[in-house]
Each structure stands twice: as structure tokens, then as C-alpha cells.
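anyone else get weird line breaks when pasting these?? whatever heres mine. first is seq + C-alpha cells for prot A
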Amino acid sequence: MGLQPFPAQRQGSRKLNRLRLGVPATLELMHERRSCVIDDISMAGARLKIDRPLAPEQGLILSFHELRAFATVVWVRGNNCGLRFDPKLDPEDMQGMLWIKENRAAYDKMFAVS
């Protein structure tokens, strides 16, 4: 049984289910790298916690372990922002994210996440 993209049960424009993660990651901008936390993620995008605001429509790369996803900032609200991936993440990438969600204690132990 694999992770399949399917319509979310909530209303709004979101088309794919999201996985809640709460894991640290890095944003690679044109001239700097910034830390962030991936609150939730889908094949199409992610919601992040950030320390400093980003500009809407800003292009960047979200880096998390071996994942490097090209993205555009689509909204910013306080210390949160939304990204749209281009291209969408592969199902294999989402399988890795699902493993983290289902095995959080093992993940935290392996990577000493506080």
C-alpha cells in the first residue's frame, strides 16, 4: 500500500492531503541560507515556520535531507509561509515523509531532533 495523491476532505483550493511533520529544514535563497520548520507538506507545496519574512513570488529551494525542491512563496502570514513546488514532489519523496510521520520517535533519535 503506497501513498496516493487523493482529494482532501476539507473545503478550499487544496487538492492534495498534507502530512504534518514539524521537522527542521533549510531554505536556499539567492544570497543566503535560512533555517525553517516544515509544518506540513504535500506533493504540491508546504507550509513552513520561518524566522524572517519572505517575499511573495520569491523563488527558492527547500532542502531537507536528500530532498531539494524548487519552490515559489505563495503567501506569507507572520512567521508562516506557504510554498508551491515546481515540479511537484515525486511519490517516493512523499513516501519518505510518510515514514517520518509514522516513525517519528525513530526519526528524532536518528537525527537528534529536539
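and prot B, same format (seq, then C-alpha cells)
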Amino acid sequence: MEDKAEKGNKVLVLPCSGIGKAYGEMARQAAYTLIEDFYPDQVITTCLAKLMIGDPDAVNLVKNNTVFTIDGCASDCARKNVESTGKKVDHSVRVINIFKHHKDLRPTGVLDLGEPGFKLVQFLAEDLAKEIDCLGKKED
């Protein structure tokens, strides 16, 4: 996790904090997949709870970087917490939307998403990676 207030040209991915819920776990796993497997030098994250309490480093990360949110439910807590800083979210998704295209896959549980759940995580991370790639093309 990124804790210092870095500036510029990073994509800050803020996943849902739905602890104990499969969609929240999928949001976090998709963020980690983006960071570890797709863009280790370009994508960062921080703890959503830090943003919720107004931690200055978390707020600076939001204000100084491109921000993607991944929400597990219709409450959109990640998106709303970013917007509470005055920053407009650059791209926001809900985990539930990935099911629309992959109705045959369901996570097996919360602590163990199982193979179907991790396939969904991979699809979600790939969709987000496409959005990050589009950002890079716009900047060129």
C-alpha cells in the first residue's frame, strides 16, 4: 500500500472496504492485481479508511493523482469518499457490473473467493487496465 503523498502521473485505485463481503474482497483483489500484475510503477492505492478520517497523506494522494474507485455495492462508499475531498473521480466501477457479462461465475465465499471468484477479479482488473491504457493514449 502507498502511504506517502506522491504527486502526478499515477493512478490511485481505491477499492471498497466491504470487509466480510465477497464484492468488497473482489474489489480489493482487483486493485492488488492492477498494482502487482499490470502496472506496478503506475498504479498505487491507500487505505480507504484513511481517506474517510481525512488523513492528510490520503487526501493528497487523491488530489494529486488520477483516481479510480471500485465499489462493491450501490452505496458507492469509495466514490463518495473521494468526492468528499472535492476531487471528481476519473473512473468508477461497481463489482456487480462484472457479473452482467459473466453470469456463470460466482465467488464461492468471502475468505476464499474460489476459482470462479478469482476469474471475476481478473476480468475486473482487465477492464480497469483498459481504462488505464486509454488514459495513457489521451496524454500522448
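btw re prot B: DSSP finds six helices and four strands in the chain. The chain has one domain: 11-128.
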